[in-house]
TrEMBL record:
Pfam families, alphabetized: MFS_1
UniProt cross-references to InterPro entries, sorted A to Z: MFS, MFS_trans_sf
Protein name: MFS-type transporter YitZ
Main location: membrane
UniProt source species: Paenibacillus glycanilyticus
Amino acid sequence: MNLSWLIRSQSLVTLASGMIYPYYLLFLKNLGNSYSKYGLAFAVFTISSALVSQWLAPRLDRYSQRMLIASSMGMMAAMLAFPWVMSYSVVLLLQLLMGICNAMQKMSERQLLADYTIPGGRGAAIGNYHFWTTVASGIAVVLGGYLIDWLTINVLFYFSALVYAASAWAVWRMQKADRGKESVQAQKTKSVNG
């Protein structure tokens, strides 16, 4: 995986999340819940993310690409489940899952961003990364607004799930390509030394 693919995959994650999060409150209101329940749901999300980060941290160097894939797949599963939710307790369970996925995504994203840049020369790459992921977020909010006017919030959840799946696929494809390159390099090294 390289920096340009990291930018692409994480722009997709930003697009998927930006499409649904501004309208999530409408979903909770449709369940008949209050703003205080929204606050509790968001607290479950943030606290679970913080707690799982301590378990993930020692594994990050070795498994960051896998964590990105797992994060996108977990978020895809949550987005597919939300339209079927009928109770607030299930919302809290999904928030727990989403918090775990958020920790995997944020930590892996930062780890890989550091891996794919050079100390003392990271500014331009980080600026480029921030630009594209932020543009994706802005597009997502506008797109989500138009889609929710024409369709239902459930369709928005499904579309977001599809974009999360595309992000997982992009990371998986680049991880597979990296393994192929490493294998070829190892064969070259072996033949030169052997």
